[in-house]
Design a protein that fits this description.
- The chain has 259 residues and is mainly α.
- It has one domain.
- It contains 11 helices and no strands.
- Helix 3 packs antiparallel against helix 9.
- The protein is globular, with a radius of gyration of 19 Å.
Length: 259
Amino acid sequence: MLKAHENYRELIWVLAKTDFKLRYHGSVLGYLWALLKPLLTFTILNFVFSSIFAQRGAGAEHYSLQLLIGILMFNFFSEGTSAGMQSLLAKSQLVTKIYIPRWTIILASTLNSAMIYIMNLIVVVAFFAWHQFLPSLGAIAMFFCSSLLIYLIVISFAFFTAPLYVKFRDLSMIWEVLLQILFYATPVFYSLQMMPEYIQRVLLFNPMAFIIHFTKESLINNHFPDPWQGMIFLVLLAAAFFLSLLSYRKLAPRVAEDI
């Protein structure tokens, strides 16, 4: 039993490394694109919005640091969910020709996104050092907990949608549109405090808005969510993860037939 789990871990790791290498194979800059892509997005948004939001005052302290954190976290969510949803169809030859647990393919695709996110943490550390800004230990712990929560959301979404995507290919186009909506509904390039209170309450129903808002608040202002807010959020995420597993167990046996 333990040996089987070790083999699965090795398989997931091999698949994730292979995806990571293939993603940048043939490009001139190679793995540097994992760092350059979010940096280019950051540069454009920072150039456009930094002067605008700096004049607004509320929540605009260290705007560039807040923007960078928001971009990296949302990119992790965006790339992880998209890769997880398309994972089984992308590896259709493995699904149809040999037997390996389908969940290993899904986890490997999400782990690939996590590897890119971890690489991008180098940029975060460099920016905080450049600005000579040191968050509290509690805020740093909050950042890593938030990153794990994003990964939990990614996994839950992937287990739910990967078997569905094999049969309903339109899901990718629908999700691209929804990601655009979620980006603007998440305080990535703006501060939640700038919105009226009733809009703030509505936006916080978006799990990514909740995570990114309080991560930025903890790192920059050492302000954390109330314990009851954190508990409700964790319970909802746990429920979503449990439901995604139930959905996966029901749909996964028919994946090979639907490809």
